[in-house]
Design brief:
Shape: globular
Helix content: over 70%
Largest sheet: none
Distance between the termini: 41 Å
Structural class: mainly alpha
Radius of gyration: 17 Å
Length: 127
């Protein structure tokens, strides 16, 4: 799909789907719907990570491409480190279970906004 359409557009859509499906996991549903949401969340989160590396490689010029991919990878890894810490903290606070899923959907929503703004040219007004 990224070859057919612009990768930024696909990433934005996938981040929206990921955030939505993760947040819906907190709502009590039947097993079939929960399995579909887990599959959707897994496919869109893993799919966006893989596509994000390809997009970053196209986004940055050759002279700083490895630095851009390194930063993107490092930020993703920091989320993988902080995620379990956040999950444990939320569980220890004895909040309702759905709050945990809402909290884990927030980074996907932030990523959606960030990637939708990446690569857009700002226009300056000339006098």
């Amino acid at each position: 799909m990224a070859d057919q359409f612009h990768p930024r557009r696909i990433l934005t859509i996938f981040f929206i789907i990921a955030a939505g499906s993760i947040s819906l996991l907190g709502i009590r549903s039947n097993t079939l719907i929960l399995n579909m949401l887990v599959a959707l969340a897994g496919a869109t989160t893993i799919g966006t990570q893989i596509l994000l590396y390809a997009y970053v490689a196209q986004y940055y010029p050759l002279s700083i491409r490895s630095t851009g991919i390194g930063w993107a990878s490092g930020i993703g890894r920091s989320g993988a480190i902080l995620g379990p810490i956040l999950g444990g903290t939320l569980l220890s606070m004895n909040l309702p279970l759905e709050f945990n899923f809402y909290a884990f959907a927030i980074p996907g929503a932030i990523a959606c906004v960030a990637i939708s703004l990446a690569g857009r040219q700002t226009q300056t007004l000339s006098s």
